[in-house]
Amino acid sequence: MDELTEAQQALVNYYIDIAVEDSPKFDPSKYTDNPDLEFRDISNERWRTYIFPTAEGLPNVEIKIDDPKAVATKPPPPGVSGGGPHRIVCKDGLGCYVPAGWIGIEWEWIEGVKWDW
């Protein structure tokens, strides 16, 4: 596909801005009554992948979550290296639990959507 002209790119950016402004804001109360869980909006991510270590010589294990909407985090338990557990809310309200011990996270932003944290 050919590259967009400057005018075409400006039009694409305009429609992205409208879509973002008209998007409903994330409401964590829809997903939990637990006051210990504080969810952050991550709807600006297309996907995120958690990377876990394995035995030496084996490839790392990856857990990929498409279209995440929110994440609640906690610090790792004592004696566990790596990141703490995450609870993820996906687009259909489906929940996903990522256990402690991950060593990395990769993600892809939705083009034109900015981070707010």
Note down, in words, how this protein is organized.
The protein has 117 residues and is of the alpha+beta class. The chain has one domain. It is built from 1 helix and 7 strands, in the order αβββββββ. The protein has a 4-stranded antiparallel beta sheet with strand order 1-4-5-6, with no helix packed on it. Strands 3-2-7 form a 3-stranded antiparallel beta sheet, with no helix packed on it. The model is unreliable at 14-23 (pLDDT under 50).
What topology does this entry show?
Elements: H1 6-22, E1 39-41, E2 45-52, E3 61-66, E4 68-73, E5 86-90, E6 95-98, E7 104-109
Antiparallel strand pairs: 1-4, 2-3, 2-7, 4-5, 5-6
Shape: flat
Please report the distance between the alpha carbons of the first and last residues: 34 Å
The computed structural class is: alpha+beta
Strand order of the largest sheet: 1-4-5-6
Percent range for β-strand residues: 25-35%
* Helix coverage percent: 10-25%
Write the H/E string, N to C. Answer: HEEEEEEE
Report low-confidence residues grouped into runs of 5 or more. 14-23
For the sheet with most strands, the description reads:
4 strands, antiparallel
Key descriptive features of the protein:
single chain, 117 residues, alpha+beta, 4-stranded antiparallel beta sheet, 3-stranded antiparallel beta sheet, 1 helix, 7 strands
Quick overview:
By secondary structure, the chain is α+β, with helices and mostly antiparallel strands. It has one domain. Helix content is 15%, strand content 32%.
